[in-house]
Every structure is written in C-alpha cells, then in structure tokens.
Amino acid sequence: ACEKNVDIVPMSKYGTYIKRNTDAEGYFKHVYFTSDKVIQVFRRSTAAQRVVEIASLLALKDKNHIGCIKELIYDETTEEIIGLTMERYNMTLKQYLKLHSRHRLSAKQRMHIIIQMLKSMCESHRLGIAHRDLSSVNFMIDTKNMDDEPQLYLIDFGKAVFYSPIAAKKWWVRSDDANLYLDEVNPSSKQELAVWCKNLPYVMARPDHGYRFYRSIQTLPRANKDHELLPYLIDPAAEDIYSLGNIVWKIFLDIEPWPGVFDTDLKKLRETVGKDANIDKVLDQTMPGPYSKLFLQKFLRAQPQDRNSAVEILFWLERPDIQTALIAEWSLKGGGSRKAVYKAVEITATLPVKAANLTKQKVKPLTDQEPNELPVKRTKQAEAKNLLVKKIKSIETKPEIKKSEVKYTVKDGIKCYAKSGIPTGRPRRTSLSRKTTEDKSQISKPSYPYVKTGKPRGRPKKPYSPVINTTTAKGSTPVDDDDDNSNLLESVKHTTIKQDEPKPTDKVQKDVPDNIRSFEQSHDTKLSTPLPSPKPLPPALCMSSSSRPPSLSPQHVHPVQLDSSQSTCLSMSPVSHVDPTEQLVTSVGWSPEIGSKKRKAVKISGDPGVSQADDGDKLKKQCLAVTDEFDRALYNILQSLGLDSV
C-alpha cells in the first residue's frame, strides 16, 4: 500500500458512516457512500479473500478501466484490516443499461463500452489475475454528463485468483477448511501450495452458483446443492472470457443471454452450453448477422482451449472493417432495416465468395486473415433477383421455335394430326351395348362373374341350437350341496328337449320300472283328475351330453353303485315331499360332509362298475360324473324327481 501511495486509516475516521444503515449490502461486504468515496467493510470474507482482493486492487492501481483504491481501513484494537475505500462512480453497468432501455444506446456507444471491457480484462490477465466473478454489477459506469461517452471500470476482486506462480506464493495465506467459505478452495499447507503452483495456470475449484447464465459448462453446477470439489482443473482466465461473452451479448442485443432458458433450469442450461453445436444453433436464431455470430463465437465455446484470449479478441475488434460490419448489424436493433445491414456487410466483403463443391472439398473456416471472404447471408429478395436474371438470360439464349405451316387436318368430320393422321383429343368411350341373339328377338341376360354352383346366394343360415329360457321355475327350491358352498343354485332354468331324444312320457323304453309305468298310465287315463299336490310341475331337464354347458369341466366317470337293499328309483310324484339330501344319503350313501373340492368319489361296498342287485330285473344304474357344483345340483334334482333312470 505504501508503494502504491495508498493510505492506511483507522476505523474511527469513518465511524459516523459505519454506524448508520448501509447504502448497499452484499454477501461479503457492507457498502456506505460518501460524497466522493465508497466505504467497503468486510462482512463474511475470509482472510485469504481479503488479502487477494487488496493485493489485486493494489497491483492494478492506476491501470486502464480498473477501479481505483484510495485507502485501507484497520481496527485500532485488533490492528486488523477491516475494509477499504474506493473512488465513487455514478452507477453500475446494469443500472446504466436499464436507464437506456427506452432511449436505446447507439451502436457506437455499445461498441465503445465493449472495447473498454476487453481492455480492463487485458490489464487483469496481463498481471496473472483472474476475476472469477464477472457480471453487469461488477462493472461501474462513470459519466459526468449524459451526452459524454461513458467510462467503464472493473471492481470487486473478492473471488479473484492468482494464476502466476510468483504472485500465488507471495500472497498465499495459511488457512484450514473451518476458515473458508463454502465454495472457496485454497491450499492448506506448503506441500499443497507447491502442487498448486505446479498446476498453474489451471486451478482447483468448486461449482459456481452465482450468475449461472455467465458460467461455462466447466463451473456450472449440476444441482442446487452441488458444492463438491470438481474432479478436474479449470482455466480461470478462460472462464473470465466466457463470462465476458455473455455480458457482451447482453450489451449489443439488450436481452439476457440464452433466450428461452431459465437460470433455475440447470438441466436445460447445461444441455444448451455443453456443446458447440447447441451454442451455434442459439446464435443462429438470435444474432442479427454473421459478424455478430463470429464475434460471440470467440467468447462462447464449450472447451476452454477453443476460446480466444482477451488480447486476441481486442486486436480483432479494433480493425475498422470489423467495426463497420458490427455497427451495421447492431443498428438493426436500433430501428434499422435488415436490408441496410446486409448492404453494409456487402460493402466490406468486396471480394466474391467462392462456392465450394461440398462433394469434393470442404468449405473454408472463418478466419481473421480472410475477413473479405466471409459468407454473406442471402435474403429472399436477393435470391428472387438472381432467379429473375437467370430466367432472362435463358430466354435470350433460347432459339426461336419455327411454327409448322399445316398442323391439323379434317378427315370425315374428325380433326386429326397432319403428319400421323391420328385423331386429336381423347378417344370417345364406347358404351356397353346389350348382346342380342342372331334374330335379335331375345336379349341375352348379362353374364355374372360368379360360377353357377346351384347353391343359394347370401350368408348361410345358422344351425338350430336349443334356446335356454332364463325364467326361473316357481316353487323350485335351492339344494344345499355342501356346507362351505351353500346357495349354489337359486333357480332351475328351462331348456328345450331335442327332437332326437325321447321324452320322459314317451312309452319307448322297454326296461322301465313298474312304478314309472303306473305313473304314465295314470296320467294318460286320468288327465282330468287333480294332482295330489297343488304345487306346479318341475321343469323338464335334458341330460344329453350335447346339451352340457361349454364352460363346465370335461365329464370324468366316477362309478357309484347302489345297494341292493335300497330302492332302485325315487318317487315319481310331481314334487317330492322327501328332503333330497336325506334321499341321497339313504339311497346312494352321499352326505353333505363329502365336499366337491376334494374331488373324491364315494366308496360303497362292492367292486366299482358291477351291479349288486339280487333280482335280475333291476335296472343297471350308470352314475353321472360328480366333478363340479353344477353337475351335482342337477343330479340331486333329477334324483329327487325320479328322472335319473330316464
């Protein structure tokens, strides 16, 4: 500070300002304004940050477009540097651009501001100092009069890094992780400092969460809570160039960079800035001309080695032909027309652009040495003009067509060509006439395309199938088949009996028991006599194999024999007054405890399938398959009605 003629003053000199409310407040500092100075009191900055900021401002004192430091403030009790004072300027660059949002800056004023920004960056990088926190807030604008050209100054080196080994060793402060803020990386020992200086100009870093639009893919965080140390080294000077390119974008277009992307959407922002192809796609959509795109391509590249240095960009920008082209393009935003922009670009591009054959050789890349061969963006008007010129030339070169003297002739009232004699126009379509016989007395019928087979046309009729009546029979009661599966059958449904099968009342069968025959004779002779029971007759059920529902399981034969002491068939009265469960227990040996889930046949004494009847006239019984609840319910009902033998 003494070498740079910077005074060191006690805190009591500015006690009245420090005790009042702050005029501005940042994360690391409290700011107070005087008439000609700005007082900055350190708030949360660590010792390493304070040393780096003060050393950077002192090294850059009296340099072009760098904020001028005036004094250092120390505390009398602790003898610690607690702040500094700097020269006061009118406003920040952000406030200046907002002030001219309606009364826009001219293209020359924008060019003047951008050149000053590049000069300040050249001064900083020449001394091996990377700012690492460039934004529109850290550039100050000083204007004595609104009509004068604004002067720009770079301030706030709180996150700066020395990437020259001599300065890094000179201003290193020993510190541990407890004395560092969240995103700060600093060597904690001399051994780490030796490794740190060996890797310079590349340094270790963490993701940067401030001003995400101005951060490249190397330091852009992956998530809001991403504070882990990066697994690679970064180039701090290249990071400054990338951030400066976004600020330049905002200056000459008056919009935030990367339109359509929010700084909170880190995934989309990383996809946009992660590849050069994506960056160029956005530039094609937003830039007013080819020179503006080429200008930003020198800043905005995904890889740090592809970005130009501040000195190279400044040297390219100070060329008069480049400035003329850029000012013409930027004037489009200030109310100019696109025709004027391309007219100005065509003036600079005096030499014709050679069209390269894409199949044989590649197009030459844009370079600084060939500014006159830059491709000019063609408009629709230019393309239409070139097309019109080509048509006019082709018309002039075409030979005159000689008209033939005689082109058509008329033969038999039909217009024909003179050379070939073929009638002109489309030939007439002949109508289909009816074919007649030789005597033309009878008209023959038109032929059908179908082969005559003698079969009737149309869809064949469906075969006859029995119709199931869904009406329930009155007086029918459900039969409990099992204790676990109760109420299995609530009603008995009517079905029709096929014509091929004999009805229960037909006297066709020979081996019918006497009680059934007496029952039939009584119904034939005494039809007028009332039935013994007032209840209606049960429905007639068909037990043929063809009427079995398709959803049931296949019939498995489980032969069950009847005991000789038991009756061969049950009563044939219209409605049996005996409980069907009791009859089955007494006749067959079936009981409700034998469930259908076990799928077991009831074992009765005797060999299966052999009749045990003492008298030879007893009818052989064929047992039905007891495989599911539906079959057993039907069998119980038929057996209770005495129709099982039929």
What this model shows, in words?
InterPro entries: Kinase-like_dom_sf, Prot_kinase_dom. One of its GO terms (biological process) is mitotic DNA damage checkpoint signaling. GO terms for molecular function: ATP binding; protein serine/threonine kinase activity. β2 (24-25) and β3 form a beta hairpin. The termini are far apart. It is built from 17 helices and 15 strands. The strands form 5 sheets. The protein has a 6-stranded mixed β-sheet with strand order 1-5-6-4-3-2, covered by helices on one side. A 3-stranded antiparallel β-sheet has the order 7-9-10. A two-stranded antiparallel sheet has the order 8-11. With 646 residues, the protein is an alpha+beta fold. It has helices at 15-19, 47-59, 93-99, 107-126, 165-170, 190-199, 236-253, 266-273, 276-286, 290-297, 310-317, 320-330, 338-348, 380-397, 514-525, 580-587, 629-641, and strands at 7-10, 24-25, 29-33, 37-42, 69-74, 81-87, 91-92, 129-130, 139-142, 151-154, 161-162, 408-411, 414-417, 468-472, 493-495.
Residues in helix, %: 25-40%
- Rg computed from alpha carbons, rounded to a whole number of angstroms: 54 Å
Shape: flat
How many beta-strand segments? 15
Oligomer: single chain
Strand line-up across the major sheet: 1-5-6-4-3-2
Residue windows where pLDDT falls under 50 for at least 5 positions: 333-377, 433-444, 470-510, 523-529, 537-588, 591-617
User: Whole-number average pLDDT?
Assistant: 73
Strand content: 5-15%
Structural class: alpha+beta
Count of individual helical segments: 17
Taking the sheet with the most strands, its summary is:
6 strands, mixed
Distance between the termini: 126 Å
